[in-house]
Write the structure tokens for this entry.
Amino acid sequence: PMKLSVQHLLRVYDPKKPKESTERIKKVVDSSIEQMDGLARIANEFSNFARMPQPLKENQDLVAIIKSTVVVYEERENYSIVLDIENKKVDVLIDKAQIIQVLNNLIKNSIQALYGIEKGEIFISCKAEKESVIVRVSDNGVGIKELDKEKLFIPHFTTKSTGSGIGLSLVKQIIENHSGEIWYNSEEEKGSEFAFKLPLN
């Protein structure tokens, strides 16, 4: 996402609207820097899958994190992202960098599932309940084959021609380290939905 954001910075700038363009560029740059900082910390400790660092939990606004993360994926021609967030703010005790990694992985998986889809759509929702908050990332992509479903969270399993196959395994581990749950629903040729639940403070 950071690479794509840098490539799109020039497209964002409009000399006829310098003030508006500067604000949009600043949002993309700030979001990229935030993700780089998080990646740097994880990379320093993440020498292998078994040593995924324990979360450094702090009180964070999950709504703000979602909106900031989505910025680097917006303004694409081949798909659109729709946010459905009821709450203005949702406070959770989380490791911000790790939850950003979870969102990045789920959004990127949705984007990759949209290859060849004429009107790709990604829906991201965030809804607070009594004791928890649920985040859903869904798409109208190719879906997951029945034979692959039971293997999705297994380390080093991948349906892609490139990739390490630890993305969803890492996501599952991060969510569980936050005392949360993760699950999914998918149908071939119709799309997929991944959802995770985190306890509220």
Remarks:
- Strands lie at 58-61, 79-85, 91-94, 120-128, 132-139, 181-187, 191-199.
- Helices lie at 2-12, 18-45, 62-70, 96-113, 146-149, 167-177.
